[in-house]
Amino acid sequence: MPSINEATYVDVNSRFGLNRRPEIILDNETIENSFYNIITTPLGTRQFRRDYGSKLHEFIHEPIDAFTAFEIEADLLQNLRLHEQRARIIRSRTTVSVLKPPGIGFLIQIGYVIKITEAFYTFRVKVERKGTTL
Questions:
Q1: How many whole angstroms separate alpha carbon 88 and alpha carbon 35?
Q2: Dihedral of CA 26/15/85/112: which sign?
Q3: CATH topology assigned to domain 10-133
Q4: CA within 20 to 30 Å of 114's CA: 9, 33, 79, 127, which one?
């Protein structure tokens, strides 16, 4: 992990810890923080940026199956590419799959390359009926 002076990107983690203080994050963590914000923001709810976010919340009551996973994947690919210009999303390395046992949720994996450094990373998040976990 580079120091703050060597980092390409510097941001503040929007998911505060138990001490309720923001944490400084660098490079790929800044992009993954942005992914998380895009994924968890319902489309149309951000003031002055109605196109920001994803439709993930609309899939909450849909069946947890391969068809819904495909719809989520298509939505996320479109919205992450639109709103996170620092990264190039790798379609062949991006998947949404049904968690085992079936019916509990999805595992979202997003393969991406930071455009400036050309470094490859994978962002993972579990989305379960009871909530979103990392």
A1: 12
A2: positive
A3: Nuclear Transport Factor 2; Chain: A, (3.10.450)
A4: 127
